[in-house]
Design a protein that fits this description.
The protein has about 450 residues and is mainly alpha-helical. The protein is built from 21 helices and no strands. The relative contact order is 0.19.
């Protein structure tokens, strides 16, 4: 049963006590998006764009809002288990449904690897003599062990960590803005003094940074998956998507303003979080230690959720014969043993490669995962445009974030332009080749499974 018009009308009168409201859903969305990709990966975006990274995160927020609008428009009208993979299969065929499902899984694995390496970076802040790869492997093993315990406390842990991440960003912004207001911009090169200062790598550098920026917004699928838990969808989801978009974009943009105003942009690298560097520069050494600890804990939180998501995707694919059936078998306690083991084996393999490549692997993992996000978002928008043409008369809800077919097509064109521009960076090209190779492998597997 899909959403009917009378459901939306009556929805306004219902006083359901259970389920999520707009603020809860927005909090889940913001918490699901903010992770090591932003706290550490933003340094890669700053390296490419310089101070114009502020505009890059603003543009990334606009693109994200269009994709989020497309996803929620369909999911509210057609609430089904499996979310966008099911819609893609309905409108674009079995192959695209298969491809998207496995891409989501692969992207999750790559994200797990990048988050694990990020924990190594954060831990080396206190223990610099121990290898980053050792920390990454230990942190991943802990996450695998936690997922073996089940999902009873996942929601509770995620809610607490979401609040902590948001609060620490607000504290960072307040302290940073206070220092800038009091002392002005004291770094050697004022980033806002001229066009050349704001765009040190020209417009091309600004556009190339968008690959990493998109990665930091990649967690929006969390919101689409949670829509089925909302108590009054037609009222609460539009509020939640607007609140989440304004909240996450504001936090990202203002944070970048503080960083480029307190740290020389060309001195930032992935060996340490730019947030820690900023706190050190403005004289809050104690705060830099605190934020590093909070970022570390929140990264663990994202890893736990990502690992769980990967297991669930494997189970979902196995349930529709798009993966080995053994992956959907569970123990008496409801643990999907073989999906859990498969996810663990592949993610450990990815992290073990870090022993050979070191921190370079972080760049490759983020860029590869970002290209999958590009692909995923394009498919989501194409699915949305087809749904607009073929939707039933009672499927009346359309998100206020996206203005129909034209808006979706413009967003697709912008994403393709950004994808092409990103290939001008050597590290990103390697990530693109990895992502393309994986796409080809998945396509070949489809042919084998179909036989």
């Amino acid at each position: 049963m899909y959403l009917k018009q009378k459901d939306c009308i009556n929805d306004n009168k219902e006083l359901t006590k259970s389920g999520l409201n707009a603020y809860s859903l927005a909090g889940i969305g913001i918490g699901g998006i903010i992770g090591a990709g932003f706290f550490l990966g933003s340094s890669l975006a700053i390296n490419e764009a310089g101070p114009s990274v502020i505009l890059a995160f603003l543009l990334g927020g606009v693109i994200m809002s269009q994709v989020l609008g497309a996803m929620t428009s369909i999911s509210i009208n057609r609430p089904v288990q499996g979310s966008f993979r099911v819609y893609t299969e309905q409108y674009l065929g079995n192959f695209m449904g298969f491809l998207l499902g496995w891409i989501i899984f692969t992207s999750g694995i790559l994200s797990l690897g990048s988050e694990a390496i990020a924990t190594g970076v954060f831990l080396k802040y206190w223990m610099p003599n121990i290898s980053l790869s050792v920390f990454a492997l230990i942190s991943l093993i802990i996450v695998i062990g936690i997922n073996r315990l089940g999902t009873k406390y996942f929601g509770y842990i995620e809610s607490i960590m979401s609040v902590i991440k948001i609060v620490i960003l607000i504290i960072f912004i307040v302290l940073g803005v206070f220092v800038i207001t009091k002392n002005g911009i004291t770094i050697k090169q004022n980033p806002f003094s001229s066009f050349a200062s704001f765009f040190p790598n020209n417009i091309s550098g600004f556009l190339q940074s968008m690959l990493i920026v998109i990665f930091t917004y990649g967690g929006i699928s969390t919101v689409a998956m949670a829509t089925s838990e909302v108590r009054k969808p037609c009222i609460e989801i539009p509020k939640a998507t607007i609140l989440m978009t304004l909240g996450i974009v504001s936090l990202y943009v203002i944070s970048m303003f503080v960083i480029v105003s307190t740290v020389e942009w060309d001195s930032i690298n992935t060996d340490i979080s730019p947030f820690v560097q900023s706190f050190n520069n403005i004289g809050y050494g104690w705060a830099s230690t605190l934020i590093n600890a909070v970022i570390l804990i929140s990264t663990f939180s994202v890893m736990i959720g990502t690992y769980y998501g990967c297991v669930q995707i494997l189970v979902s694919l196995a349930g529709v014969n798009k993966a080995p059936k053994i992956l959907k078998s569970s123990t008496g306690k409801g643990i999907y043993k073989y999906s859990w083991l498969t996810t663990g084996f592949i993610s450990i393999l990815v992290v073990l490669i870090a022993f050979a490549l070191g921190t370079k692997l972080f760049n490759y993992l983020i860029s590869s995962s970002s290209y999958f996000s590009f692909f995923n978002w394009i498919i989501n928008l194409i699915t949305y445009t087809i749904w607009l043409e073929k939707r039933e008369k009672n499927e009346i809800y359309n998100s206020p974030l996206i203005k129909g077919r034209l808006s979706a097509i413009i967003t697709i064109i912008v994403i393709i332009i950004l994808l092409v521009m990103s290939l001008g960076v050597s590290d990103f090209r390697i990530g693109f080749y990895v992502a393309l190779s994986i796409l080809l492998i998945i396509s070949c597997l489809y042919k084998l499974i179909k036989r």
